[in-house]
Amino acid sequence: MAEWKSLDRMTINGSLRWHSDNFLKSKILYSLGIRWPVIPDRWMLRAHLSNRYRLPTFNDRYWHPGGNLDLLPETGWGTDVGSTLGLLDAGIQHHRLQWQFSAHSTWVRNWIQWVPSDGYWSPVNFKEVWARGIESGLTYSFNQEPLNFRAVVDYAWTRSAVRSAMPPDLKGTDLRYVPQHMIRSHLSVAFESFTTSIYYRYTGPRFTTEDNDPFYRLDPHHTLDLSTGYTLRDQIYSMTFRIKINNILNEQYQMVRGFPMPGRSFSMGIQFKFSNTAQ
User: Fold this and answer.
1) What are the residues facing 39 on neighbouring strands?
2) pTM to 2 decimals?
3) Which of 5, 132, 143, 270 has its CA 20 to 30 A from that of 61?
4) Are 49 and 82 in contact, with CB atoms under 8 Å apart?
5) Could you report the average pLDDT of every consecutive run of 10 residues in the chain (279 residues)?
């Protein structure tokens, strides 16, 4: 592995690795990455390119039931680019607003994916899969003791499509259970010993069959969770009381077709931490 830094703080790193196993006599794996602080501490650009080689894991081959001894290793290449930009002047105290963006593309032969089969899940190889997508998000934070506030919202678009398969009519179909659209947001407030967090997640429609039959497609769903806690602190210990409400909206949804997820639920917990730093 090698790394080079220019006078304008650009960093370029790369690596070459030789790999050998029972599936393939030998293969050279490469990786190249660039990071460029266009405006230091304000605007960062990055890019990465590498080829891909992944052996089936022990669980992929031997999990019982469902393991597949006939799996082939994944091969391919991938690239991603991204940017991080601070939207507030560095002179503004306590406030920070940041925008992140990234785009990625990966082409894989013999993609390994676990899919439902005969009452249990089993891994299979798809001939060729092209996975690409974009992600974008905003993060705002305010920190001035005793108040700390943080809000995050992210959007992701992903398309993982079969480019070559048997039978041929599966070409162009989406991989099962991979949503094209996802939104995640998180808001947290901490004031002295109190903390409260709210989590929101949107998952778009997902196909559950290889031929993308719309009749068996899972509908989009929203989930909203709430967590609040209070912490007692001493020189040698801290004790946190926490209450969490999952799925506040009591959304009826399924992550896997035929297996409904729980509705609204409540949980409580106490966490102790000890330290021997006290004299």
Assistant:
1) 43
2) 0.84
3) 132
4) no
5) 67 86 75 91 93 90 90 92 88 86 95 82 87 96 92 96 76 90 97 95 94 93 96 86 95 92 95 71
Q: How far is CA 110 from CA 56, 77, 217, in A?
A: 10, 12, 25
CA separation for the pair 165, 155 (Å, rounded) = 30
Biggest CA pair distance of the chain: 72
Instruction: Return d(Cα 243, Cα 269) in angstroms, integer.
Output: 7
15, 44, 213, 261 from 265: Cα distances, Å: 48, 42, 33, 11
Q: Are 42 and 85 in contact (CB under 8 A)?
A: yes
Q: Residue 158 phi/psi, 5° resolution?
A: -135, 135
Name residue, tokens 């801290």: 238
Question: 247: helix, coil or strand?
Answer: coil
Query: What does the alpha-carbon distance between residue 96 and residue 34 come to, in Å, rounded to a whole number?
Result: 25
Tokens matching residue 141: 């934070």
User: 200, 218, 201: which is closest to 209 by C-alpha?
Assistant: 218
Instruction: Select from 146, 237, 154, 230 the least CA-distant residue to 193.
Output: 230
Q: Are the beta carbons of 193 and 272 closer than 8 angstroms?
A: no
Token pair for 107: 């082409």
HSE of 57, CA atoms in CB hemisphere, 13 A: 10
Distance CA 147, CA 111 (A): 47
Enter the tokens of residue 75: 């091969």
Rg (alpha carbons) of the chain, rounded to whole number: 24
